[in-house]
Amino acid sequence: DAGVTQSPTHLIKTRGQQVTLRCSPKSGHDTVSWYQQALGQGPQFIFQYYEEEERQRGNFPDRFSGHQFPNYSSELNVNALLLGDSALYLCASSPLLRGGGRDTQYFGPGTRLTVL
Amino acid sequence: AQRVTQPEKLLSVFKGAPVELKCNYSYSGSPELFWYVQYSRQRLQLLLRHISRESIKGFTADLNKGETSFHLKKPFAQEEDSAMYYCALTETSGSRLTFGEGTQLTVNP
């Protein structure tokens, strides 16, 4: 099991463009969370998906949207890119526990987005 | 609102010395606390969680609800412990994580 995988590794865009980042969860995990990590800061929660629906959302504008597919993989879309969107975007997955609820999150390597 | 504070951005110790990375949190309920670690060129990975009460790689952390702290400790630091350490909390297991800004630990030979 490769664990959580993300693509692409690096991405360079210009202001105003749109970007799509992809994440495949660890085998057996049904929940995907996205985080933004700006340089020198801790990760900030963007949103979480399971059962193909957004379940929780952090303090990010509507320019940030996502999707989860039936195979549990997920996409993060960012529209109208700003310079301040330059960051490392992390995907984390977690499994559904037998009694309900979800277990610890496992992180992918991240996608480094640079907006020029 | 949830908040995690790691007061030290940088911490440097010598090999064999004790190390303590501080973490304070603010949350009105009973959160679950974690320490995540990121070694150079590797992904963020879970080091330990308070409900497990484990010692991982010689590290321990005790949740002090009175002081709202979750400090990470190791009695004898090793060079391979050099990494970025993040304290994080969640209100429900598997739910959104709130991270501190991290502490870069350097263990000198």
Helix content of chain A: under 10%
Percent strand of chain A: over 45%
Radius of gyration of chain B: 13 Å
Overall pLDDT of chain B, averaged?
92
**Low-pLDDT residue intervals, each spanning 5 or more residues of chain B:** none
The residue-averaged pLDDT of chain A reads: 93
Helix content of chain B: under 10%
- End-to-end Cα distance of chain A, whole Å, is 36 Å
- Total count of strands of chain A: 11
Order of helices and strands of chain A: EEEEEEEEEEE
Shape of chain B: globular
Distance, first to last CA of chain B: 41 Å
**Contiguous runs where pLDDT drops below 50 for at least 5 residues of chain A:** none
Strand content of chain B: 35-45%
Biggest pleated sheet of chain B:
6 strands, mixed
Largest interface: A-B, 28 and 21 residues
Counting DSSP H or I runs of 4 or more residues, the number of helices of chain A is: 0
Structural class of chain A: mainly beta
Shape of chain A: globular
